[in-house]
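Figure 3 (text version): structure tokens given as input.
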């Protein structure tokens, strides 16, 4: 069976709460959904979220990449030869990992649908329930404490606190959140590159000395500063998680070589899809590097693919899969749902997505 068409859908949907980090503030999810269709009319879906400040990816850029380069390379090719098709996607264009990731996921989704199995089964797993953390958007100590209490009441017991917007007040923010939720909740920090190495060491040592029981610290320094990341890792006891510093295999190899971080956050939109993500997880495991799988601000499509990967491959810590939870309403029908702090995968072929609909959506093919 062959690939008959590759279509793109521009989607924008509001968040119920502004999402604020050291890198950006957003009130919407803006994303490109890619639909790969076989000659029997089946569709597989993937997603390329727009994250200018993290990956540099845009909806317009991803769409141009898919339409002008990737789609022609797939047209008329065997849809069942998944490994070869994913290789085609990686080979046809340099960079553009978000666009390539969307097509890679769509090909996996289509393959699972053609076999009549959920994506997690195609990847080798069986569980349909995957725990997730929830993010506390950057803010002052009072607001963060209130948000932490609310999320705890909603069933979340792993809180990811966004810091890095104001190094002088970050220790007080962590102290306020810990006081608000008590000892039974895991707290992890994400500075999103917001600290200098010296600030990172000072703040993390302060957290350690205060006994605030933080689980890990994500991307404390600039993504390009692997020397700084290694310098921080060598001077603190808390595990350091590399996120923006690692997109692909070569990045992870360098982090491992320099002993720059204890853990890595694997994201499909950073690395180019499920196929390269599995390589990253295997490489990390082989070198004793801890793992989580994360998500950008994206819909049930991207989060569903990431959660399916976690369900099949596992990670060493609870993954970061709350992105679709932030949506005030979703343009995607079907797919995952949230049950408190758990992502529930559908018992349906592929990602279980039935349609994408939205008033501002533009379809091209």
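Below: residues designed for each position.
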């Amino acid at each position: 069976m062959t690939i008959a068409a590759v279509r793109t859908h521009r989607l924008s949907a509001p968040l119920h709460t502004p999402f604020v980090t050291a890198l950006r503030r957003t009130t919407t999810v803006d994303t490109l959904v890619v639909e790969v269709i076989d000659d029997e009319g089946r569709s597989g879906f993937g997603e390329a979220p727009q994250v200018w400040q993290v990956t540099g990816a845009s909806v317009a850029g991803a769409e141009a990449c898919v339409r002008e380069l990737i789609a022609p390379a797939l047209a008329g090719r065997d849809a069942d030869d998944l490994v070869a098709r994913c290789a085609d996607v990686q080979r046809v264009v340099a960079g553009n990992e978000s666009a390539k990731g969307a097509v890679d996921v769509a090909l996996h989704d289509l393959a699972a649908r053609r076999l009549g199995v959920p994506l997690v089964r195609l990847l080798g797993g069986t569980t349909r329930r995957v725990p997730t953390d929830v993010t506390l958007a950057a803010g002052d100590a009072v607001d963060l404490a209130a948000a932490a209490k609310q999320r705890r009441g909603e069933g979340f017991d792993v809180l990811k606190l966004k810091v890095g917007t104001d190094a002088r007040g970050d220790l007080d923010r962590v102290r306020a959140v810990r006081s608000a939720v008590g000892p039974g909740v895991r707290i992890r920090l994400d500075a999103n590159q917001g600290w200098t190495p010296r600030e990172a060491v000072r703040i993390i040592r302060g957290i350690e000395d205060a006994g605030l029981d933080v689980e890990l610290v994500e991307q404390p320094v600039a993504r390009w500063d692997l020397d700084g990341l290694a310098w921080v890792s060598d001077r603190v006891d808390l595990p350091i998680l590399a996120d923006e510093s690692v997109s692909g295999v070569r990045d992870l190899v360098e982090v491992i070589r320099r002993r720059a971080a204890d853990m890595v956050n694997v994201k499909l939109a950073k690395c180019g899809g499920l196929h390269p993500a599995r390589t990253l997880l295997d490489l990390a495991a082989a070198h004793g590097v801890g793992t989580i799988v994360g998500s950008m601000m994206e819909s049930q499509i991207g989060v569903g693919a990431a959660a399916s990967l976690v369900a099949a491959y596992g990670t060493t810590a609870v993954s970061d899969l709350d992105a679709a939870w932030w949506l005030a309403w979703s343009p995607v029908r079907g797919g995952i749902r949230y049950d408190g702090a758990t992502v529930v995968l559908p018992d349906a072929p592929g990602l279980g997505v039935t349609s994408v609909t939205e008033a501002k959506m533009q379809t091209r093919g």
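Residues 242 and 264 are 5 Å apart (CA to CA).
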